[in-house]
Amino acid sequence: MTGVERPRLYPARMRPRDVMRVGAVGLRTRPLRAFLSALGIAIGIAAMVGVVGLSSSSGAELDRQLSALGTNLLTLSSGSTLTGEAAQMPVDAEAMIERIGPVEAVSSIGKVPEAKVYRSEQIPEAQTGGLNTYAARLDLPATVGATLRSGTWLNAATERYPAAVIGADAAQRLGIGAAGPDTQIVVGGVRFTVVGVLEPVALATDLDAGVLVGWPVAEERLGFDGHPTTLYTRSEEAKLESVRQVLAGTANPEAPNEVDVSRPSDALAAKKATSEAFTNLLLGVGAVALLVGGVGVANTMVISVLERRAEIGLRRSLGATRGQIRTQFLAESLLLSAMGGAGGILLGSGVTMGYALYSGWPSVVPAWATVGGLAATLAIGAVAGLYPAVRASRLSPTEALSTP
Amino acid sequence: MTHPMIALTDVSRTYPGGVAALKSVSLRIDHGELVAIVGPSGSGKSTMLNVVGTLDRPSSGTIRIDGYDVSELSDNQLSALRATTIGFVFQSFHLAAKVPALDNVADGLVYTGLSRAERRRRAAAALKRVGLEHRMDHEPHELSGGERQRVAIARAVAGDPPLLLADEPTGALDSVSGTGVMELLHELNAAGTTIVIITHDREIAASLPRQVRMRDGEIISDSAREPEPVESGVT
Known about the structure:
Structural class of chain B: alpha/beta
Number of domains of chain A: 2
Number of strands of chain A: 11
Distance between the termini of chain A: 39 Å
Number of helices of chain A: 13
Oligomer: heterodimer
Low-confidence stretches of chain A: none
Shape of chain A: elongated
Helix content of chain A: 40-55%
Strand content of chain B: 25-35%
Distance between the termini of chain B: 34 Å
Strand order of the largest sheet of chain B: 6-7-8-3-9-10
Largest sheet of chain B: 6 strands, mixed
Mean pLDDT of chain B: 90
């Protein structure tokens, strides 16, 4: 009887679907606990996806703005003299710049420092509201990309009369909702009719707090000296750098150092870089939340193994190998965190879409954030589940069965 | 049969700390037998069940189950042996809560490699065999104690193992349910399954064809080898 040859024994492989089914046992029997520990993961992933989504969406919005506004706008403003006084640009600076070959358009404004702006004559003189009055050329909106929220831009007729177009901030500070023949403000002691209100101008933010009046009327009624203070130029994109180098010398040949040349789209790009740095910080916060979620999953799994010793013993008696017990608890941990991850991605994308919709941005959730988020949750699930799973598989079947 | 179902030769099991639960036990059980292993608590009968069921390894001696030398098998191979050859019935049933009887039985076959449809088909057949075809969709808390033990027995025999090990199968049941479960075990044995029942109940032991009595880790009598000693006669 001792020499009987018996066929070799092999444990049967479990089918992937059965692995999933067995792994889901713990989640089915304790749904609330599964939900809560998945929630921890979900919050972490939602935070990360939301942060990435919002920053990508605002970045996409900025890109859209830049491509709509163009990056070929160069701005010249009068700086200060060597002795520190405010410098003045020549009256014919505009005409000289127009002669530079690659320059496609040029326009200018001139600050009228003495002309204070008030809603009516009743306002005390000290309460200027921080608004500036500018004399503006008729081609200004086309050059800087300004659009009107209400009313019309100045034209050849209205630029000679007390008519004003006000910036978006100025409208808010003055309490003016829309332009109209009855809407009047007081500029430098003269009543001006508000014929137009601008939308915020992204590439020339000075105009937002400005009151724009015609060049002739400024000279005649407000004591404007005719010197432009800021020039706006559009040039061929390819020759922008060479134009930039000659601009100051062309505008003010006698004192090129008194002219500051800048590219407003650079400022927008810088804003984007700043917001990216902030995004990285928030991503770090999201990662911490995710880590805490992972600790929650590990905790749940350890408790689950302790509670289900009898089940583990039963499964061993039914023929489960150590590896199959390990796989079961690893699968449970992975399912738990995958559920949390999927929920978090939905939540984060939902928040992004909602906020983007609310702000009128294009809503963008990058694929790498979604894939990366899922990969992160699976990695966390594997790490969190590994120790409890190994512990469960090392449990001796008799010991497990003797627990009631 | 060319080999016995169970063959224990000089099997000892000593727990850390020096407690000897089995002391050089030899036992042979052939295919088709229905055997009671009876003894008071602490007699070593549970350890006997564990080593026979390959859940525990002996400290010394050899165990052959269905011809396989247990000491030569790896942990994985022992698992395979349990999956194909041994069915377990426990005193406390060990049924999964909130899972219908059919799935409780079918899930017991998950480590045999059968498809889910086949597992459910065999589970239904096993439940029919234990007389519970009208309770397949009931969850454990909707069943009586006797019915729960029948479900557990159905799970143990669903894979058609040649050996069934039952640890106090009637210990948690009233006498009527207990009698029903014992009748079922007799029927299964009549159909060819080798059954070993661990019990401390002499009445139940006496109702079986063969009794192996244990005390202090040793076999003190075996009704198959010698006539029943007069002084330890059954009630």
